[in-house]
């Protein structure tokens, strides 16, 4: 994110480009780790070229934070919490994945910040909207909005809304 977009991102963002994503994720970088193998351009559910795809972004962030290649897909967004049930609960953490089981294919988003005082999470995602060319988004949401939170590569410190270099916490899973 550019410094100019940091302030607006803390309030929420929606962009047909990649202005709302973090850590350098964009049309060029989205294929630089294992996430593209399972959720990339040739997968169903992405819209546009390159595709806007929530599972691609969530997996890309996990890989970016150091999660090794799992060797397979976890499915569409609505399947992640079921496939990864042992790593899923109702407690958010920075670096976890917010999981939604509703809709046609569900949804997943990256938890970039957690505000314990008002029980909200700052979610960043590369989504899509049916009938559109796709978009990226970031916004604050109540803890209870996602179906659950998947903990595969949580971080030890809050994620700055600008570019960051944070060492991931070793996974205890």
Q: Which percent range fits the helix content?
A: 10-25%
Number of helices: 4
Uncertain segments: 1-9, 161-173
Strand order of the largest sheet: 1-6-5-4-3-7-2
User: What structural class do you assign from the helix and strand content?
Assistant: alpha+beta
Principal-axis shape equals globular
Q: What are the SSEs and their pairings?
A:
Layout: H1 3-11, E1 13-15, H2 35-39, H3 54-64, H4 77-83, E2 88-89, E3 97-100, E4 107-115, E5 120-127, E6 135-142, E7 148-150
Antiparallel strand pairs: 1-6, 2-7, 3-4, 3-7, 4-5, 5-6
Comma- or semicolon-separated keywords:
173 residues; alpha+beta; seven-stranded antiparallel sheet; 4 helices; 7 strands; 21% strand; globular; disordered C terminus
3D architecture notes:
- The chain is of the alpha+beta class and 173 residues long.
- The protein has four helices and seven strands; from the N terminus they run H-E-H-H-H-E-E-E-E-E-E.
- It has helices at residues 3-11, 35-39, 54-64, 77-83, and strands spanning 13-15, 88-89, 97-100, 107-115, 120-127, 135-142, 148-150.
- The chain has a seven-stranded antiparallel β-sheet.
